[in-house]
């Protein structure tokens, strides 16, 4: 009887040991399956995220660099490729632009010369930009205005629909130019600006033009309006009446 009980107890312990070992193996297999599942899910999520990012990427066309302009080596500092902020210059991005400034005095023919330049479809001369005092109040405002002009962001009647190859302005000596001449000369040197000095050789004719302009400012001979410049033979014939009046006064 005692042997039977001992054998029964051994059988029970053996069955319990087998059950315990089976449970441990099941836990191990379950843990391994969970780890594998998490790893597989992580890889899948990464692949999904990568594919979505690829789908949202902006495809940019890499443009070829602009060809070297066929110019002399000394001209290279005077050739520029501006990038305006107010509009896209993509079609003309490879068209080089030259900067210029017409330095002159009133009644010296600068208006006629600028009209002649603006008759070209690829040249823009923006007039007396610094006739407005605020723009020439200090060096900072002057350089900011020049940056806007030479970056092709200055929109005026001189702006062209064709690709601009030369852009500049007309600048009178008494419009802040002489007060800040050193800083302006340095700006022109750094930015490769070509300077055109335009002066009237016949000082007597310039004085007559000044007096005629002052006379017309008050008399307003042209349809009751004052015009600093005339652009037709009829306007010239009307304004020459001042010369007759001046000669009569002198006599």
TrEMBL record:
Chain segments annotated as transmembrane: 23-45
Query: Is the keyword Ribonucleoprotein in the record?
Result: no
Query: Can the keyword Transmembrane helix be found in this entry's annotation?
Result: yes
Q: Sorted alphabetically, which keywords does the UniProt record give?
A: Membrane, Transmembrane, Transmembrane helix
The name under which this protein is listed is: Sulfotransferase
Q: Which organism is it from?
A: Lotus japonicus (Lotus corniculatus var. japonicus)
């Amino acid at each position: 009887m005692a042997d039977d009980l001992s054998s029964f107890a051994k059988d029970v312990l053996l069955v319990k040991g087998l059950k315990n070992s089976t449970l441990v193996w099941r836990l191990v297999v379950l843990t391994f399956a969970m780890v594998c599942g998490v790893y597989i899910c992580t890889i899948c999520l990464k692949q999904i995220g990568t594919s979505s990012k690829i789908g949202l990427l902006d495809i940019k066309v890499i443009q070829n660099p602009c060809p070297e302009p066929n110019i002399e080596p000394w001209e290279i500092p005077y050739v520029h490729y501006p990038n305006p902020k107010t509009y896209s210059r993509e079609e003309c991005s490879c068209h080089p632009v030259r900067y210029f400034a017409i330095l002159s005095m009133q009644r010296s023919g600068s208006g006629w010369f600028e009209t002649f330049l603006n008759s070209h479809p690829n040249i823009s001369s923006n007039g007396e930009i610094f006739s407005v005092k605020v723009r020439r109040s200090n060096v900072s405002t002057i350089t900011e205005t020049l940056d806007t002009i030479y970056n092709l962001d200055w929109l005026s009647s001189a702006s062209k629909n064709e690709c601009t190859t030369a852009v500049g302005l007309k600048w009178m000596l008494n419009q802040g130019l002489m007060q800040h001449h050193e800083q302006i000369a340095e700006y022109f040197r750094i930015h490769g600006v070509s300077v055109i000095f335009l002066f009237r050789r016949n000082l007597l004719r310039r004085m007559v033009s000044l007096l005629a302009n002052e006379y017309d400012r008050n008399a307003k001979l042209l349809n009751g309006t004052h015009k600093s410049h005339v652009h037709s033979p009829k306007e010239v014939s009307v304004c020459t009446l001042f010369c007759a009046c001046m000669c009569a006064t002198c006599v």
